[in-house]
Amino acid sequence: MDSEQLGFLSTLWTANDATPWLIYADWLEERGDRFAEWIRMWLDPRHGQHGLLPKMTAETHLEWYQRPDYWLLSWPTERKRVSEALTRSDERFDWHNQKLGNGGLSALAAHPVLETKRELALSYNQISAAGIIDLAQSPWVRSLRWLDLSWNEIGDAGARAFALSPYLSDLEMLDLSYGYITDAGGVALAESSTLPPRLRLRLECNPRLSEPTRRALRRKYPQVSFG
Known about the structure:
Distance between the termini: 34 Å
Structural class: alpha/beta
């Protein structure tokens, strides 16, 4: 997600009519994104979401359902619920076990109120690397000090996204327990030039991390735990 899309998604959190969505669809079309047509069709009362079914293959179906724009467009009640909870909460936002998914996490990464949060609890949310990458690339996470993503399928790509993020240098705790991380992701974390050495990194129940990788992680993060 680049800065332009981040800006569009930020405004779509509060969109009450079709106008900002149609502007966004025009922008997607200029970028060659085939889902621009899908958004227009969804908004057209002559077609609606059911008009998309003939266009769906198994591959496009999966891609569409993991997009942040789909999540914001198709779940207005949930969008309102998340936004109200995020705005109402103090410095901690706890959204444990809410089936947020990748689309929801990517949308959350574009919510500007996220910048006011110091703690984010998102365990058990059916999240994988696609959503993690958008979260790690969002400038709104720069204020975070505590991030719990345990019991999600982080994987090596998700671990690598955290290792490369330029916005998490002040993070104090990162929980990636039960995250399906192997040596490739562990090495990326150990070699990160942006995550702080004082980080309390939790990697419990990631059994495919070898002992050499664990030693490298201990050297980088003295407070790392493997369980």
